[in-house]
Design goal:
Elements lengths: L7 H27 L6 H28 L19 H26 L4 H25 L11
């Protein structure tokens, strides 16, 4: 039985958007870490720097997949919005919005590769899982102590 063919150009274009988005996340989380002040600075900046490192790993993996498919990795970085809001709650809400956009792009990739490439399908599913877990963590950080209801709906 023939396996449906992969639209390499669409997959590479989507992977390049993922690469750009993850690189923007690296810059965003690095900047956020610089802007944290107060009693909880050390654990918060540690978490943010780990998110920046994770974004770099994700960007590198997307770039490797692009070249695996014969494409050229983008040198662009996704949009960087400076709101000048540096309250931890504002930073986390911006982070949640960015993660939602990344999740959407990974789901788009999954729809392009599902049933066509085990490698890319497994990658997309793994990244969707990681992004959903990350969104859950940020959502919990935005809640008041003892509040079990999600802030993102």
């Amino acid at each position: 039985m023939n396996q449906p063919s992969l639209d390499n150009s669409k997959v590479i274009e989507t992977l390049n958007r993922i690469l750009e988005s993850e690189l923007a996340g690296v810059v965003r989380y690095t900047h956020y870490a610089f802007m944290v002040f107060g009693y909880n600075r050390i654990p918060i900046i540690s978490w943010m720097r780990e998110q920046a490192n994770e974004g770099l790993r994700h960007a590198q993996e997307a770039g490797e997949l692009i070249t695996h498919l014969g494409g050229h990795p983008s040198l662009a970085i996704g949009p960087l919005l400076e709101t000048h809001k540096h309250d931890i709650g504002d930073i986390l809400r911006e982070s949640l919005a960015h993660e939602g956009e990344a999740l959407s792009t990974y789901k788009e990739l999954l729809s392009l590769v599902e049933g066509k490439s085990v490698l890319l399908e497994d990658y997309a599913r793994r990244m969707i899982t990681e992004e959903e877990m990350h969104q859950g963590e940020v959502d919990k950080m935005l809640r008041k102590p003892g509040d079990l209801a999600s802030v993102s709906g």
